[in-house]
Amino acid sequence: MRYLRYILPVLLLIVSACDSIRTSAPLLPVEDFFKNPEKTAFHLSPGGKYISYLAPYESRMNLFIIKEDDSAAVRITSITDSDIDKYFWVNDDRLIYIMDEGGNEEYRLYAINCDGSSAIDITPADGVAIKLISLLRDDDEHILASFNINTETLFDVYKLNVYTGEIDLLVKNPGSVISWIADNSGEVRVAISSDVANMGMLYRKNSTEEFSLIKYTSFTDSFYPLRFTPDNKYMYVASSIGRDKTAIIKYDPDNKKEIETVYSSKEADVNHVLISRKTNEVVGVKYNTSHLNYELFTDYHKNIYDDIAAKLPGMEFYVTDLDRNEQKALLKAYSDKSPGEYYLYEVSTNKMEKLANPEPWINPDEMADMKPVSYISRDGLKINGYLTVPKGRKPHNLPVVVLPHGGPWLRDYWGFDPDVQFLANRGYAVLQINFRGSTGFGKAFHQAGYKEWGGKIIDDISDGVHWLINQEIADSNRIGIYGFSFGGYAAIAGLAFTPELYRCGVSYAGLVDIFSYLDGIPPKWQSYKDMMYKMVGDPASDSLLIHQHSPIFYQSQIDDPLFVAMGANDPRVSQKDMDILTAKLKKRGLEVIYMVKGDEGHGYRKEENRLEFYSTMEKFLAKNLGGKVYN
Fold first, then answer.
1. Domain regions of the chain by residue span
2. Which range (170-184, 447-461, 521-535) has the least confidence?
3. Angle in degrees, CA 447, 463, 445, rounded to 5
4. Which of 1, 202, 460, 616 gives the lowest tally of CB atoms within 10 Å of its CB?
């Protein structure tokens, strides 16, 4: 296949010209896919008085508020250096939000009134990491959070005043707790500990008692408390103990026993519950197979969801907020071809009002269909994924971009993906692969990915490429691989370990040296280090395996063009490693584009950097695979 590289540029120009004639979708600007939305992250205040959202101001995402029965939105923050990352309503007048600096993931916590007044930084001290535990249902002045104030690796529990920033220590970390769970009255009653890759659940009946260990499991089993029952006596737990697929169970912590299975699925893990704002009871679950599924337990809530679904044919949706009386629901509806629209649903009248289309420049009729697909791996596992074919094209002899997801302990979902639609708009078929190790498909499938980063996970991706070729969907001479984070690692690993499959690769915030990655785990994440050794490899006992899975040691096998992008402040990926790899590849005469942004971390959050990245990638892929470029 390699001799084709000398005549391929001319052939690609011819094929690209033919493609442009056949496609029925107009070529769209890069900005349409990756610029900031007009409005996003809508939320409803607890009493339903206000609607909030994020929108650009000076190209940075800031907070806006709409008062009840008032269509005029008011901007309440004026941040120009970074985007607000997340925000929450504490009560109908006060909000909190978090943001970092330059993508360094050193988040700070802020509070502000809904009219923009009394804005303060409520981070207890510089260099302190934050983990939110709970917004308190019956306390409008405080939240529960854990901070590593005293020891960098230990997070203690504090009650934090959102008006003054004052903190009160509630629970001291005994040394191994990684997360805390409060009951419905705000008492911290459960602690999850990590001990050499095993997990323990500590429990107490009330705040006057000491914590005691009531459950000890291997990290390979899921047993995670989601919330207490309304009477604070039992817990709803996502558990895979004694089963392959995670299910929702009701658990009695006093007697250390499972009471009943609330809901389970034979197809997928179920680990998300729907809660009544009025009663605190679990009223349903949601989970993903190839699409989003709901199961509602009460007629009241089933009627709400059924009516919303009937009003949104062909769309999936999720409810982001219900007011305390459950008379108003704020929701987002989306599809594979629509990035989503926000609606306000009035329960008493069954009326639904459209609040915003965050990206009105996206026309769903111009987007491509995302179809669930599956194939069998070389060792017999069923691998699920999604295939998107450019609009107006037949799935035959197409240039392809393989898009492995990050994590790797995540999964791809059906829905609008700007990367996918951007690539399809440029004429590429896009294959997304839920390779072994992906979450949501049961613990056996998840564990099949342990210590297989550069082994069977890469085999699964390669098997997907061969499936595309055997199905005659892919032109075997025009296949590239691109991914973010672990997907970026998989792109470089693909070029190093299976160079015969690909014409080029794009690594976005991907690592290349697993030794360096494990050694660089920051102190605040140290509690997960033993678990990482079990799932990725122990640098001491698995040194040969880690060496074999680290593409930096196999750079001599890479003979395809490579585009690398990363942030200088990335706490997960070593720029030094990438400097070494790209320098060696350039020395060998390979085409290498190396983009490093000094004001970014793990991924480009700033709009101008995103647009530069995708504009560069568009030209890089077109040169090597023959796709289109917007002029």
1. 2-33+363-625, 38-121, 298-358
2. 521-535
3. 15
4. 1
Task: Give which of 400, 388, 336, 366 is closest to 23, Cα–Cα.
Answer: 366
Best CA proximity match to 36, nearest among 24, 16, 54: 54
Count the Cβ atoms, other than its own, within 10 Å of residue 606.
20
Whether 385 and 412 have beta carbons less than 8 Å apart is answered as yes
Euclidean distance between CA atoms 283 and 541, whole angstroms: 47
Q: What is the mean pLDDT of residues 588-595?
A: 97
Residue among 478, 403, 405 nearest 439 (CA): 405
Q: Which tokens sit at 233?
A: 């006596």
Torsion angles phi and psi, residue 276, rounded to 5:
-75, 125
Identify the residue whose tokens are 């709009």: 607
Section 342-368 average pLDDT: 96
**Residue 511 one-letter amino acid:** L
Burial string for 523-562 (b: 16+ CB within 10 Å, else e) reads ebeebebbbbbbbbbebeebeebbbbbbbbbbbeebbbbb
User: Distance (Å, rounded) from C-alpha 452 to C-alpha 442?
Assistant: 17
Structure token digits, residue 223: 């047993």
CA 380 – CA 343 distance, rounded (Å) = 44
* Fold exhibited by the domain 2-33+363-625: Rossmann fold (3.40.50)
* Strand ranges across the sheet with 188-195: 177-182, 188-195, 198-203, 212-218
Q: Residue 4: enclosing H or E segment and its boundaries?
A: none
Q: Is 612 exposed, middle or buried (0-12, 13-18, 19+ CB in 10 A)?
A: middle
Tokens matching residue 557: 């096998």
| 3-state class (DSSP) for residue 243 | coil
Entry field: residues in the chain? 631
State how beta strands 351-356 and 370-376 pair. Answer: unpaired
pLDDT tens digits, 164-207: 999 999 999 988 898 999 999 999 999 999 876 688 999 999 99
Backbone phi and psi for residue 463, each to the nearest 5 degrees, phi listed first: -65, -35
Angle between helices 456-470 and 486-497 (to 10 degrees): 70
Name the residue among 39, 20, 120 with its Cα closest to residue 355: 39
Give the DSSP letter of residue 520: T
